[in-house]
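Long-time lurker. I teach an intro course on protein structure, and each term I like to show students one example going from raw sequence to a predicted 3D structure in token notation. This year I'd like something fresh instead of my usual example. Would anyone be willing to generate the tokens for the chain below so I can use it in lecture? Attribution to the forum is fine with me.
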Amino acid sequence: MQEFIDSFVKYGYILVFLYSLGGGMLALLALGVFSSAYDINPYISIFVAFIGNLAGNCLIYFLMKINKNEYSKYVFKYKRKVALMVVLFRKNAFIFTLICKFIYGLKTISPIASALVKMRFDKFFIYNAISCFVWAVSVFYTALYAASFIKNTFEQYSSYAPIVLFAILFLIFLFFKIKARK
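-- Reply from a regular --
Happy to contribute to a lecture. Here you go:
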């Protein structure tokens, strides 16, 4: 286990960059959790996730802008989502660019919709850069503070851990037992 943790700390930035290209949060969350226990630079982590997400969204924007006809067959099954995003982007582009960073399924539709709206690249880049930065900072620090809180709580109440674990397992069993009756 220690070998995995050491390699994740060593190569974590590369994983965060690659995973952030598609807008994924899991690697950034894991790096935030590991940074509460290990020596990981939070500024580099946030910067790497920011650059990865920004590059991925700009790539999607350009691919959609250049090859709109070829990619329309792939976007066809998301036609309703894209149509809704186009309407929302025409009204409030920045707000929906920011909100879409945090909603799974709309992260990749956001650059597609902005390309379909024919938004200028400089305007898209500024909106996207601000949104990517807010996304990276909020996700990383949420994971960092949540991990610190859980760690401190566990250290403070570790003598009650078996009782709490038994209570949680009993509640889960009770929940499924009640759910099975319905």
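Some talking points for your students: The radius of gyration is 21 Å. The chain has one domain: 2-156.
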